[in-house]
Amino acid sequence: MVKKGEIVIGVITNILGYGAFVQVDEYTGLIHISEFSDGFVRNINDYVSIGQKVKLKILDVNEAEKKLRLTYKTLHKTRGVIGEIPKFNIGFKSLARALPDFIKDQQEKGEDK
Known about the structure:
Layout: E1 7-16, E2 19-24, E3 27-32, E4 53-62, E5 67-71, H1 92-109
Parallel strand pairs: 3-5
Antiparallel strand pairs: 1-2, 1-4, 2-3, 4-5
């Protein structure tokens, strides 16, 4: 018997446009598309695939029908922007090379007064 709020491992059994179906022991669960991310979800296949085991949190239990309402996003949040951090050449040598151009730009703008 499972409870609301419990963390479970389930296997993705089917993916449709509105959500993914999951088998958790003798229960059938649904992860609605809105429970994959706080942002816009274009394609559920970007998050899970059929046959994949995933860790999920139970939002609601219908014991009579052995059905679960599940969430993916609570346990799989991505924070910040995904991408590469630009590489900068930091140090006094790079500053020394840039300084003449900076001074010239400031003089042209008339900001040296």
